[in-house]
Amino acid sequence: MRIRGISVRDIRFPTSLRLDGSDAQHVDPDYSCAYVVLFTDSEAKGFGLSFTIGRGTEIGKLFIAPLVQAIRSLAHLVVGQDFEAIVKDFGAFSRRLTNDSQLRWLGPEKGVLHLAASAVVNAVWDLWGRTQNKPIWKLLTDLTPEELVSCVDFTYLEDALTKEEALEILRSMVPGKDKREEEIRSSGYPCYTTSSGWIGYDEDKIRNNLLISMQAGFSKFKIKVGQDLEKDKKRLRLVRSIIGDNRQLMIDANQVWEVDQAINWVKELAEFKPVWIEEPTSPDDILGHAKVAQALKDTGIGVATGEHCHNRVMFKQLFKSGGMQYCQIDACRVGGINENIAVMLMAKKFGVPVCPHAGGIGLCEMIQHLAIFNFICISGDLKHSVAEYADHLHEHFIQPARIKHGCYIVPDVSDMMRILNNLRNFAPGYSVEMIGSSLINYEYPLGPKWREMFDKKLYEDPSKQVPPYVEHRPETRSSHFQRFHSIQTS
Length: 490
Ligand SMILES: C[C@H](O)[C@@H](O)[C@@H](O)[C@H](O)C(=O)O
Ligand SMILES: [Mg+2]
Prior knowledge:
The protein folds into two domains: 3-160, Enolase-like, N-terminal domain (Enolase-like, domain 1, 2-Layer Sandwich); 170-429, TIM Barrel (Alpha-Beta Barrel). Helix content is 43%, strand content 13%. The protein has 21 helices and twelve strands. The longest helix is centred in the first third of the chain and has 22 residues, at 111-132. 6-deoxy-L-galactonic acid binds at residues 21, 23, 26, 29, 53, 194, 252, 254, 307, 357, 359-360, 388, 390. Residues 252, 254, 278-279, 307, 359 line the site of magnesium ion (MG).
């Protein structure tokens, strides 16, 4: 089977209208994604996406966009390729995507280009799952240790994890795999919810959300902090008064503090007994994270990070420096499943639990597969590894993530009861295929839902905006630029 084409679309949802997803740093996110479909010379297709929070996904009239365009710039590395050859040496394929001799200048292995690589890699895995009629977690758990290791690019990891060590870890976990698979099928994968306490929610909404989540069986909650210390104390007091002393609480500052400020602020919140402080400072500041972790050691509060961790090399440094007690892999931030396998293997070696990040669109759908695979084949630990769940936008997926009693239900294709109950669950792959009408309605900026919101003045219509560089520097209009402008606007 050969990959014959790729399509990329800018899909956005207006979550900022209700402040869903808001935090101290990202106060008005519109959950969005660059949505990828791989077409082949057979019926089979592969679906992937990379999550963003609005601006930056776009192909505007004049701005040829960051993420969508970056994915298009990778097309020559995937279109025309033989699918079986790709998955036979998947590590080499992922290296080709992230290390193109010219494109790598835009990274390397970080930022927009790496988000783009993850969308493509995720789509190839989805295609693989579909051709095998297996959900991704099952495809992964059925691979041999040797096959899994061949998916990983070990470049720059030799001083932290060699191929041989990776093989040893995976081989040591083969006994007991079936038992763990059975266990996770019956118990589900434990998760916490973030949707109770986004920063933009008022106290009534937080109270209500917590009560509803507790009724649904959640016992672990993450609350946003970091805008105002006294307000944080007030909302955490409220949260503890509702969830009690025994349910778990996590707090997330989304990078707003200086290093010492983080230490002092979190010490002030220690009385509320959070399990972790997430993203206390710049996600790039590995030594800063180590300093925060060290300073908080006596409080029992660990540092969690990863949703903005560019690549395996940064994870390596966080592991080695002791700057991360909870490893929050993200399905799109690093270069897709292959690089996440490397990170999960390092986490095992350094004894750090993997607690995947999922605040965003499509992330819950994907990370459930990674968390389940990690438990069965790498960590064997369910006690400390909790996955995130954010209760937004699942209705747009053909095979949405589903929760029961505060646990992800294992996505499966063979459970006849669930197939009968809900046909939507009958889909192999990575669970990221979106419903056709959602794609049409929410494609930005021409989808009918967006046109409606522009008409109601809820958002500004980008086609009516003058690009700021034209406004500010009219003298830069070269004849070439004018030609381009007239092509774009005609
Ligand atoms: C803007 C986003 O919703 C973030 O706030 C979110 O990813 C968050 O950091 C999380 O941990 O879920
Ligand atoms: Mg976070």
